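I hope you will forgive my troubling you with a question about protein structure. The record follows directly beneath this note:
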Amino acid sequence: MNQQFKITFSDLWATSSEDLEIRLPISEMENIHEHIHGHLTIEMFGKVVPHIWFFEPDDVCMNDWFSFLLACSERLKTVGSICTFDEGEQGQPAFVFERTESAVLFSIADSKVNGEVGDPDWDSIEIEYQLFNEVVQQFVIDFKELIEKTGNEISIRWLNEISKNKNWFES
């Protein structure tokens, strides 16, 4: 079986400290506590994972998804581990990654935060573990490189802070 798994991003922007409606280039990020948003695409077997954006397709919170995927790739080194992204914003369902012996199973499940119903078309999609890990690590490298290329000290400090966020799985 030809495995296909891709994570791409584009059109990144930073929220403004003064007005959340203003989209700043990430090179002009003003405050380490602001968020970077943009277009994030997770694709499996030629289908784009739905429901990951907030108000518009280019409004994915990279703070959350970057730190989640980084922490999840670490946690899924252990067979039997489960990583769940269930923040409940904007009626999103939960996104579940579960490690088996040789694969990662991906599901869009019911949210425990907001009650949003999962998507049965996305139940236990199997991705080879090695491929999952390679793709996530390349996403992390590409994202870090892009932020570092801005030369913006605040954006770089922001990246260092969210890279430390390992609280996704603590009870």
Remarks:
- The chain is about 25% helix and 25% strand.
- Strands lie at 5-15, 23-24, 36-44, 47-48, 60-61, 82-85, 94-99, 103-109, 125-128.
